């Protein structure tokens, strides 16, 4: 499954890239030219920045959208996000999961990208102190066309049971079947009311939300004024074609402030926060 599953911990020392939980954010510099590792390029230059601190949730109810796009704005290549991702993107993707109380995704993303439960990582231990070792996955769906025997449901740990967010009008038998394998949230009649759903998650102590798309869910979240932050990876790639942008659906305007840019291997990691958001309040 896409960029989501690769447990890649970038580490460049004097040898080849190593993968594994012990890897660090080490950087190798030659003179003033950084040749490996993440560096901050906005709002100030810094080699080997503290990445968890760079993405710390400003408050305990906050919705962060995490997406990767090509340089020409495509949200997928041949139907998947994997072709847009890279080493550092995967690391940051994993870190953002480690920081979140819950990972939210639309059912099409879950189906297309083959979502599984988030697995605890050693590197998350400090990030998740006082919380379960991994966040649950919450799936937004109207049709409930989900494989309830799949690992996303069958292999979820009791502390992070998968959450299904659906509607009153979803078929009763499918709702009952889902409730047997997952925690069920019913929010809305014909369509999930995402503001209500966010309130339900927050009531369960899951206020730090990481939404991983897809574009159709993103568009609704933005239109409802629910997006506090966009963590956008810009991939150094042109793809053309007819892929959606990272928001696909109803038009809306959410003014953003560029809070931070990191860079590695030509990938940009932009952190935008919604304008007029006071990160310290709440
Ligand atoms: N570039 C990236 O970072 C990134 C990230 C994620 C995904 N993607 C790509 O994006 C594509 C999938 O995204 P997408 O935009 O097509 O779909 P999506 O947003 O992932 O999911 C859409 C589905 O979510 C459910 N849904 C959405 N809003 C709903 C509402 N208000 N009420 C009830 N159900 C609702 C429906 O599921 P049901 O059909 O089950 O009713 C709908 O079909 C894939 O190609 C994936 O690879 C890219």
Keywords, separated by commas or semicolons:
alpha/beta, Dihydrofolate Reductase, subunit A, eleven-stranded mixed sheet, 23% strand, globular, binds NADP nicotinamide-adenine-dinucleotide phosphate
Account of the 3D structure:
By secondary structure, this protein is an alpha/beta fold. The protein has a domain of 189 residues: 3-Layer(aba) Sandwich (Dihydrofolate Reductase, subunit A), CATH 3.40.430. 22% of the residues lie in helices and 23% in strands. The strands form two sheets. An eleven-stranded mixed β-sheet has the order 4-3-12-13-11-5-10-6-7-8-9, with helices on both faces. Strands 1-2 form a two-stranded antiparallel ribbon. Helix 4 links the parallel strand 6 and strand 7. The radius of gyration is 19 Å and the shape is globular. The two termini are 36 Å apart. About 11% of the residues have low confidence. The chain binds NADP nicotinamide-adenine-dinucleotide phosphate.
């Amino acid at each position: 499954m896409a960029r989501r599953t690769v447990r890649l911990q970038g580490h460049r020392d004097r040898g080849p890239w190593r993968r594994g939980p012990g890897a660090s954010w080490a950087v190798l510099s030659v003179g003033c030219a950084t040749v490996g590792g993440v560096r901050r390029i906005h709002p100030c230059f810094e080699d080997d920045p503290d990445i968890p601190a760079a993405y710390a949730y400003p408050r305990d109810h906050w919705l962060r959208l995490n997406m990767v796009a090509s340089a020409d704005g495509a949200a997928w290549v041949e139907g998947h996000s994997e072709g847009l991702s890279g080493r550092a993107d995967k690391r940051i993707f994993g870190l953002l999961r480690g920081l979140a109380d819950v990972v939210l995704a639309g059912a099409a993303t879950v189906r297309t990208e083959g979502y599984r439960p988030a697995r605890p990582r050693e590197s998350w231990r400090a990030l998740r102190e006082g919380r379960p070792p991994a966040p649950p996955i919450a799936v937004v769906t109207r049709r409930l066309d989900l494989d309830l025997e799949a690992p996303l449901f069958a292999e979820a740990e009791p502390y992070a049971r998968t959450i299904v967010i659906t509607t009153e009008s979803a078929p009763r038998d499918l709702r009952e079947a889902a409730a047997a394998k997952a925690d069920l949230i019913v929010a809305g009649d014909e369509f999930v009311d995402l503001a209500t759903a966010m309130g339900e998650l927050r009531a369960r102590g899951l206020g730090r939300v990481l939404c991983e798309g897809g574009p159709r869910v993103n568009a609704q979240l933005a239109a409802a004024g629910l997006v506090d932050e966009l963590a956008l990876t810009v991939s150094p790639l042109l793809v053309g074609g007819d892929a959606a942008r990272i928001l696909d659906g109803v038009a809306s305007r959410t003014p953003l402030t560029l809070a931070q840019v990191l860079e590695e291997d030509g990938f940009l990691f932009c952190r935008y926060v919604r304008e007029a958001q006071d990160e310290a309040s709440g």
